[in-house]
Each structure stands twice: as structure tokens, then as C-alpha cells.
Amino acid sequence: AIISYNKYNTIEALAGNDIKYVAIGNTITVPAGRYAKEALENSGIYSMIEGKVIFAENVRQALDYVLRGEVQAGIVYMTDTKIVRDGQLNVFAIDMGSHEEILYPIAVVKGAKDTQAAKSFVDYVTSDAAQKVLGKYGFMTR
């Protein structure tokens, strides 16, 4: 998601003159940073805004930069925008097809000390009730 104080509704808007800085996660160490860079490259604007990019050590730091007004926009996970008060920031969802699919795999690890407890946890997380909770917090479920 793109977050900002202005009402941007396209990723290309980040190349505008009113945007001096865009916060994203470090593309080497932060998965969200890699997804952001991929989306910016696929939209054709990364080379145009590369000098504006401020790399954060994690997604919450990128969000904090925007909340404190230190940057004009940032790219974070949609789930991270859930902590922002309604109306505090504009939130624009980036086209999910513009970057690699974001997955959170879950499985019981071979050799786990308590495989039954691990299986119970996996069963719970994949249950309809837990998926509803995850959805409430912005995670897309299958």
C-alpha cells in the first residue's frame, strides 16, 4: 500500500514534483522493500524516483517516517496501515500483480518436539474462525 497525506491514487504519482522523499524498506534486508522496488520497477518509475527513496530498516519505520511527516509518501504492507487512525493518512493499494505474490506458509516442522501441538496450531490458523480474524487485520486469506 502507498501511504501519504495527499490523495494519490496511482503509483506513478510518486514521481510527481510534490514528492521529495518516499520511504520503503531496505531492498536487501526487508521483504516489503523488495516488493516495493519490484512494483516501482514494473510501473516504470523506479529509475525516476530512485533519488527520492529513503530506505527504512523495517516496514514500521517506513510508516513512522510518513506519520512524522519526514517523507511525503511510503510503501508498506496493507496490514501495517491498520494501526493508522481513519483519515490520518491516505492509503492506496498497489496492484497486487505488480509484484511477486506475498505468502505466509505454515507447516509442522519435521522433528518438532510436540508435533501434535504444532498440528493443532496449524489447524487453528487455517480454520475459518482464525482466517476471519486474519482478514479483519488486512491479511488476504485463501
- Let me know the largest β-sheet: 5 strands, mixed
Tell me the total number of β-strands: 5
Q: Could you say which overall geometry the principal axes of the C-alpha atoms support?
A: elongated
What ranges have pLDDT less than 50 throughout 5 or more consecutive residues? Answer: none
Helix content: 25-40%
What are the main properties of this structure?
single chain, 142 residues, alpha/beta, five-stranded mixed beta sheet, 5 helices, 5 strands, elongated
Explain this structure.
The protein is an alpha/beta fold and 142 residues long. It contains 5 helices and 5 strands. The chain has a 5-stranded mixed beta sheet with strand order 3-2-4-1-5, sandwiched between helices. It starts with a strand and ends in a 6-residue tail after the last helix.
Sequence-ordered SSE layout with sheet pairings:
Elements: E1 2-4, E2 22-25, H1 31-42, H2 46-49, E3 53-56, H3 59-67, E4 73-75, E5 90-92, H4 115-125, H5 128-136
How would you sum up this structure in a few lines?
By secondary structure, this protein is α/β, with parallel strands linked by helices. It is 32% helix and 12% strand.
